[in-house]
Amino acid sequence: DTLSVSLILEDGSTYGEKGRLALTEVAVDESTGSVTLRAVFPNPQHQLLPGMFVRARVDEGVMDDAILAPQQGITRDAKGTATALVVNASNKVEQRQLETGDTYGDKWLVLSGLKAGDKLIVEGTDKVTAGQEVKAEEMKTSGGNA
Question: Whole-prediction pTM value?
Fold first, then answer.
């Protein structure tokens, strides 16, 4: 299984054929840390020409029910385990251990420990403890006094 690659041509249009990443031809420049990858594309219409400038995009997988959680709501304990405080159905604070993946902007990809609809505490985490009854409020995302 190789990764699929798309090409964006000089005029901004997408090339009609998908390519594949040639993982056996990866080169790393140790002085700059840059990685050179090779992708192979079918070219039946001879649309791709030598010396032509294009942009390549590696088509990553998609996680349909992914949960992205604000980084400020996730901390790490002394062992490095990701933890979060959530408000449960009884309006009580509950501490959960999480498994996190990559970051996307200011959010963590949460692989386990949270589910859709969970109320993650992102402010005032130092003022609450597990078992404490609280009143959850929606997080203000823009403007206003959060």
Answer: 0.56
